[in-house]
Structures are given as C-alpha cells and as structure tokens.
C-alpha cells in the first residue's frame, strides 16, 4: 500500500464540550487547535473537526440504514482503517467504557474476499462512526 496523505473531515456536533469529552477522552484522540465552537482532533493521523451546531437534527432524521452483510449500516458514517491490534484495542476500550454499538465488533465477509473486522457506534450527537481492520491490507479494495 502506498503512503497515504491525511484526510480532513469537518462535521457538526450538538455540544462542543460533549464532543471534547467523547473524542478526546472516550476515543483518546489528541486535540489540536480549537475555539469556542470547534475542535480539531487527530484521528490516527487524520484531521477531523467538530463544529458546534446546537439545533442539529436527530440521528434518526439524518441517518439512513443500508443492509450490508446482514446488518443495518448507518449512512452517512466515517472512520478509519486500523491495523488489527489497534482495532482490537479500540473495541476493548469501547466495551470497557460501556459504549453502545450500532453494530458490535465482528468479522464481516468472513472467509471471503474483503474479509474485515468492523464496528459501528454513534457519537453523542448521533454521528455514525465505523472503524475497521484487515489482516491483509491488500484486501481493502479487493473485488
């Protein structure tokens, strides 16, 4: 796999203090620059920015569910592809913190091309996140 450059993603949250606690403490992401209504976080080398939007619509109004491998995947969602050890550690951390999963950590497409570990959960504002991992990173775009 070639070296990837970091992506940037800005998205709304209903409360900036709540976002700081979730992304900074729960997920353990280092905080970068911030102001009263936004915060940069380092998402495994990528820049995500939470922007406060107090009157944002509820998750049920924003997210559509799309069937994938027998599960209802919330769309839109974002996240990163981790190495398997980091994925397992994050899954364990989230379980220990009592995070409610939309889709519990499991192996998707088991025994097939594109086999991957995945998990889905929501932030306190209802933004859907997916973290995944591959034993073989060459399977990321395999058909």
UniProtKB/TrEMBL annotation:
<dbReference type="InterPro" id="IPR037523">
    <property type="entry name" value="VOC_core"/>
</dbReference>
<feature type="domain" description="VOC">
    <location>
        <begin position="5"/>
        <end position="134"/>
    </location>
</feature>
<dbReference type="Pfam" id="PF00903">
    <property type="entry name" value="Glyoxalase"/>
</dbReference>
<dbReference type="InterPro" id="IPR004360">
    <property type="entry name" value="Glyas_Fos-R_dOase_dom"/>
</dbReference>
<dbReference type="InterPro" id="IPR029068">
    <property type="entry name" value="Glyas_Bleomycin-R_OHBP_Dase"/>
</dbReference>
<protein>
    <submittedName>
        <fullName>Glyoxalase-like domain protein</fullName>
    </submittedName>
</protein>
